[in-house]
Amino acid sequence: MLSVELRTRIGALDLDVALDVPAGRCLALAGPSGAGKTTVLRAIAGLLRPDAGRIDCGGATWLDTAGGVALAPELRGCGYLFQDYALFGHLSAWRNVAYGLHELPRRERRPRALELLASFGIGERLAGKRPAQLSGGERQRVALARALGPRPRLLLLDEPLSALDARTRAGAGRELARLLRALEVPAVLVTHDFGEAALLGDEVAVLDGGRIVQRGTAARLAAAPASGFVADFTGAAVLTGRVNERHGDSGLTVIALDGGGVVSATDAGEGDVAVSVHPWEVTIEPAASAAGGSAHNRLEAEVVSVTEIGNRVRVGLALPQPFTAEVTRASVERLGLAPGARVVAVWKAAATRVTPR
């Protein structure tokens, strides 16, 4: 079990974080740049001394500022997977892994390095190659083998997929997720990408301005965001407004949007709020279409962008607030969607989340 309490100030960032991670579980610390994610990781590893705090892992105290305890990084037993993998370019894959096995007798290091690499799908042929001769996914697995070689008490991962190109990232992400689930030690990774956090983490802790604003499974955060910030971070389309009234007969909350327009939601709310809906819950209809079905929200919009993402198309809209829908290519062709087109964005009140701003 890893238990962390940290309080420190770095520049304008006032960090105050508490978290725990059981053995065999991975916590994804996710949030925008400057939120404090890497600061937390560095403090856990002992590369940064916080103003106040305590870190315990596996029954040992690594840091206790009140008691004057501050274990050196090399004594904490952390496996650290750096953002760029930090492999030695002049060494072969197996020698990179063997570098961290200095506690073993020299004659045992190569067999152990090859064994570790084989467990990550790197055979002896690739083990003899230097990092520049390996693919991005292969370099990632070498770095992970090196991090796990000394049998660490904890694994730390800093943006583990950011060094990969888009084509490699998906496959490497799935492989890393499988490997993380097989570990018997706590793992903490940092990422600015919610999709990556959802793929790799058993739980996601969203960090903003040095504070954890919500923690839970990725599905829980997406379904019930605690704030407009979390909703936006999980990929929902977010609008701002103010609650006008709540109809007792229909049970709907009516929100007047900033800039014009009104939407309804089944969630309760009061005062200034953020309204969010997942882009795939939004359908697009021609501007002249008549209301129909069970959807309660219909807002006239102008198409500002049409972007293909995989087998879906992300449509940027102005309501006049920026908004997003996700539709099929067939819908784009059928509706003739292009920048400047006038349409109606439609979604159900039950799909609308209302959170404090």
From TrEMBL:
**Which stretches make up the Mop domain?**
292-356
Q: What are the protein's UniProt keywords?
A: ATP-binding, Molybdenum, Nucleotide-binding, Transport
Q: Which PROSITE patterns match?
A: ABC_TRANSPORTER_1 (PS00211), ABC_TRANSPORTER_2 (PS50893), MOP (PS51866)
Output the SMART domains linked to this UniProt entry.
AAA (SM00382)
The signal peptide here is none
| Residue span(s) of domain ABC transporter | 1-234
Q: Name one GO molecular function term.
A: ATP binding
A Pfam family matched in the record: ABC_tran
Specify the superkingdom: Bacteria
Q: What is the protein name for this chain?
A: ABC transporter ATP-binding protein
- Report the source organism: Conexibacter stalactiti
